[in-house]
Amino acid sequence: MSARTPTQRLIIAAAAAVAAQWLLSLLFAQFPGFTELGWQTRAGLVQVSALVATLLAMGLGGGIGGYRFAGVAVVIQLLLWLVTLLVLARLNATLEQGTLPHHLARAARFNLPGILAGVAAAAAAAAAGAALWQWRLSRTSRSFP
Fold first, then answer.
1. How many CA atoms lie within 13 A of 126 on its CB side?
2. How far apart are CA 34 and CA 50, in angstroms?
3. Nearest 5°: phi and psi at 38?
4. Residue 17 belongs to a domain
5. Which burial class, exposed, middle or buried, applies to 131 when counting CB atoms under 10 A from its CB (0-12, 13-18, 19+)?
């Protein structure tokens, strides 16, 4: 079997990271006390369980995809947040008067701390996962006397 190309590794890393984040979110939802933990800021809430899921999933992706996965991790997080914000705005639009862009802006403004924390966590975890994998490879490739 031939070695995977860097592009193939990135695709596999992205699929693994998205699947892991989804599964971890489902797992954490079984522990209501954990999902309720967070930091309430004047701008909005930052959920601990969402950050832990992001850190673990994007760390896995970084370990598979290498350092180039950090950019992919940021894009994944932004896309996940975009979908989340669109759903929130659509739900809010059915309950209150106003346009969809107005509700989207409100949802983005309230979730901005979570968005920023999630994107930063994704980039840091992907880089850490890649570094940990490189360190592990360097330790196993050393020849012992």
1. 28
2. 10
3. 175, 175
4. yes
5. middle
Question: 3-class SS at 46?
Answer: strand
DSSP for residue 142: S
Residue 112 within a domain:
yes
Count of domains observed in the chain? 1
- What are 35-63's pLDDT values in tens digits? 677 777 776 778 888 999 999 999 999 99
Tens of pLDDT, residues 11-26: 999 999 999 999 999 9
CA–centroid distance for 141 within its chain: 31
The residue range of the domain holding 27 is 6-133
Residue 34 in domain: yes
- Do residues 130 and 65 touch, judged by C-beta distance below 8 A? yes
Q: How is residue 109 written in tokens?
A: 């403004």
Q: How far is CA 99 from CA 9, 102, 108, 109, in A?
A: 42, 5, 14, 16
Contact 67, 137 (CB under 8 A): no
Residue 141 lies in a domain: no
Give the whole-angstrom CA distance, residue 61 versus residue 20: 9
